[in-house]
Design brief:
Cell wall formation. Adds enolpyruvyl to UDP-N-acetylglucosamine. The active site is at residue 116. It is found in: Cytoplasm. Its EC number is 2.5.1.7. The chain is α+β, with helices and mostly antiparallel strands and 429 residues long. It has two domains: 3-19 and 230-428, UDP-n-acetylglucosamine1-carboxyvinyl-transferase, Chain (Alpha-beta prism); 22-227, UDP-n-acetylglucosamine1-carboxyvinyl-transferase, Chain (Alpha-beta prism). Helices cover 33% and strands 24% of the residues. Helix 1 (22-32) runs parallel beside helix 2 (48-59), helix 1 packs parallel to helix 7 (189-200) and helix 5 packs parallel to helix 6.
């Protein structure tokens, strides 16, 4: 099992380049199979979730040619609408293949999804949307089966804001007959990116980025070349890494508008944040201030950035409140952080964080993707050596994480044996 070993105490200084948005890429890759023409997708992040989804797309017969950050996909050779469980058990976003296959072939069979255990993420809203378009859905032998003789546009109101359901329904509706209106739609940047990608293939989608999306179905989609937006969560993670290590980091290849909620909180807790056209600079020179934060759908503070701010506030002056309104299991990192000296009480969906002067290195375990990244940040700020186990979660969503951190002056290595751990300890003294 691979681990990260970290010697804390170095301020992060320098420049770091952000990769493509994982959450946008997953939707876009699924949508790419909806045409029989060749689609070229650029700025693809090099992370495990992407490799798993590309494996699933190959598995149903599509042609996939990957070269670095660029992939060519041709869906004309797809011979099956049934996705193999082996590809899917690791990632939730497999469910995007439901909307894509249902839109194109009017039938899809996809195993129930896996991924991080951060709380219940039911797919009932996805199925409700498919039913509204005229599909019959059922669960059989662990798979969701959706089929329709014909998909017809409809008015769909989502009971709760759901990124996954918005993207899935949008894909299916783009090849349905007539008009579809999705109300209470998710407004996240990756929803907009998937809509823009579908439109570049000939779909007719208006209103993405607002809470009402209007779609006029088309008969076929065509070839396109498309570049994925930068990853706002990767960017935010490096911004908080700068904050907790009292660093000075320029985060490049970002869209500052997508980072506004994160930036606002960093300024509130005492960081200097400077925005450029496609970069942000975060400087922290003193101990951070306390604040209160509540996770909300975009443009609110993102749930995927909650563990990172939790780490920052655990080192801040005073008492902070963090309220999680999206996923109920997002506080699983708290027990691990307390092993490093944090003082946190979780009551229901709120964490009361009493700021402490410093963390001390410890052996901790990553409970999920974002929590794992947050524990790495904690290790960078801690006194002594920290070992983070179960980093497979982190590798699902961060490309070359340890390399990028090392380029900023962090002492971090990926290890897999006790011998490598001892070697690192000897080297860093």
């Amino acid at each position: 099992m691979e681990q990260y070993i970290i010697k804390g105490g170095n301020p992060l200084v320098g420049e770091v380049e952000i990769g493509g948005a994982k959450n946008a890429a997953l939707g876009i890759l699924a949508a790419a199979i909806m045409t029989d023409d060749t689609v070229v997708i650029e700025n693809l992040p090099d992370v495990q979730d992407i490799h798993a989804l590309l494996g699933a797309i190959r598995g149903i017969g599509a042609t996939v040619e990957a070269h670095g950050k660029t992939v060519q996909i041709n869906g004309s050779s797809i011979g099956s609408v049934s996705v193999d469980y082996e590809y899917i058990k690791k990632i939730r976003a497999s469910y995007y293949l439901l909307g894509a296959l249902l839109g194109k072939y009017k039938r899809a069979e996809v195993p129930l999804p896996g991924g991080c255990n951060i709380g219940s993420r039911p797919i009932d809203l996805h199925l409700k949307g498919f039913k509204a378009l005229g599909a019959k859905t059922r669960i059989s032998h662990g798979s969701i089966i959706a089929e329709a003789e014909c998909l017809r546009g409809n008015h769909i109101y989502l009971d709760t804001v759901s990124v996954g359901a918005t993207i899935n329904i949008m894909m299916a509706a783009s090849m349905a007959e007539g008009r579809t209106v999705i109300e209470n739609a998710a407004k996240e940047p990756h929803v907009v990116d998937v809509a823009n990608f579908l439109n570049s293939m000939g779909a007719n989608i208006k209103g993405a980025g607002t809470d009402i999306i209007r779609i006029r179905g088309v008969e076929r989609l065509h070839a396109t070349e498309y570049s994925i937006i930068p990853d706002q969560i990767e960017a935010g993670t490096f911004m908080f890494a700068a904050a907790v290590t009292k660093g000075d980091v320029i985060v490049k290849n970002v869209i500052p508008k997508h980072l506004e909620a994160t930036t606002a909180k960093l300024v509130e807790i005492g960081c200097q944040v400077e925005e450029f056209d496609d970069a942000v600079r975060v400087v922290a020179t003193k101990r951070l201030n306390n604040t209160n934060v509540k996770t909300l759908p975009y443009p609110g503070y993102p749930t995927d950035m909650q563990p990172q701010i939790g780490v920052a506030l655990a080192l801040a002056n005073g008492t902070s409140l963090v309220t999680e309104s999206i996923f109920e299991n997002r506080f699983k990192y708290v027990d691990e952080l307390m092993r490093m000296g944090a003082d946190i009480r979780v009551e229901g969906n709120t964490a009361v964080i009493y700021g402490t002067e410093k963390f001390t290195g410890a052996r901790v375990s990553a409970p999920d993707l974002r929590a794992g990244a947050a524990l790495v940040i904690a290790g960078l700020a801690a006194e002594g050596i920290t070992i983070v186990d179960d980093i497979v979660y982190i590798q699902r969503g961060y490309e070359h994480f340890e390399e990028k951190l090392r380029s900023l002056g962090a002492e971090i290595e990926k290890v897999s044996t006790e011998k490598e751990i001892q070697k690192f300890k000897l080297r860093v003294g």
